[in-house]
Request: fold
Amino acid sequence: MDILERANPAQAPTAPVVTELRPRPRIDGLDPIERAMRWLLAALDRMEVPAVVLRGDRDLPQIQRDGDLDLLCAPRHAARFEWMLERATERYGVTIVARHHAGHVRQYQLHGVSIAREHRDLCLDLHTAATCFGVPFLSAQRLLQGRTRRHGHARPDAVVSAIVDFLGPYVSGGAVRDEHLGRLATVWEQRPLQTRRLLGEIFGTGIADELGRALADPARPALFRAAQRARRALLSRAFARRPLSSARHLIGCVYANRIRPLFRPRGRVIAVLGTDGSGKTTLIDALRKNLAPAFRSAEGGVVKLRPGLFPQLEHVDHGPTTNGPADNAKEQRAAPPGTLGTIARAVWYTLDYVLGWPLRILPRRRRNALIVFERYVDDWLVDPERFRMRQGVRAVRWLASLAPRPDVTLICTASLRTIRARKRELDSRETLRQLEAYEALARSRPDVHLISTDGSLEVTLDRALSAIFPTPGLRPRSTRSRSTEARTTSSARRAA
Reply:
């Protein structure tokens, strides 16, 4: 029996029962996300839930790699849609990585892995109205009127679709895209009365006529001026008609996008650790390239060891010409101080983590950025002398526990022979000691994963992504068992 039929009727939304929707064989070439979206759209039709695809349907059922898909339904069906989405993702092993609700928009970030171990991401947006800064200007009922079918799923009317596509990127980011501008100009020529009427309902007849003249004029400055006045007119008309409701929607949008992410961040923080020659830099570059479409990569970046709010202690004594945090990747340059000096250094850098995290990391993470730390505070415990700290000082371990934790910590490890072939900055005994210390650290914390880099980059990347986005109900392939760790350590000892 289908999963929608097996669900508890008391927990499931009241709706007509969906009939059997068995997935097609894997020979159709669809990955889990595409199969889940096909199942979801079919279930919406069978449950007679009125919904349309606003954007991202050009290649359906084939979804563009790491793309976006925007759907719209009536507000009363939003909870049912989310319930069906959870059933679809559970059925095909897709992970809902993040959820973000902001007024009339619900955003879901999906991650799936195909049989060929290809990792795919999709940003799925569910709209319950067309909005400008959270203030609705076209209701779901108006958007669902006159919908047509294309590629086997429902689309809004051509005029409504062209206007929404044109206004969507502009009201949110001020961008006027040529493809949307061309579609709006086309419907203005083919159906001028209907287009002018709808634009008049949104902006007023004066702004509608001005937009029509700007569309006929190839000069872009005239179009930009008309679009700017249209956005101001849209908000002015909304506040004049429904002042309290519009103010509530605007405040809710600001809270959901500016304030709430400070406490429930949308982005991800990943720390990559490992001894010299373990492949940290190669893995970081591959992760950033692979995950860039799913995150605002321009807001993120690679952070060396710590947030960098405070300067190096050497800068305080000798000025800014001395080495910085990035030079901690090099082999130890000077002997560590005594116990009191070690504690002083640890206190200084712990404050950098505690204060620098909310001031430098959270503001970027709030904007759905991917932030990767190359080394982290855990390296103090494995290789304290690299950071000029005396080994065996208990206060250092306690201070390190005060630092905020990243979402996922990846430890790159490899056989001693592989590491020695890559780098020879450390002797074999020290490399072996660090390998054992990192493996002990991975066993002591559930959010730390060992990633073997002995194989190809594709295999290493697959293990890392599987640890970052574990498949529901499956054990992450990136986390090696203790027996595997023990075998690796034993083989490293034999190689030494």
About this structure: The longest strand covers residues 105-113. The two ends are 57 Å apart (CA to CA). Residues 268-495 form a domain with the Rossmann fold fold (CATH 3.40.50.300). DSSP finds 19 helices and 14 strands in the chain.
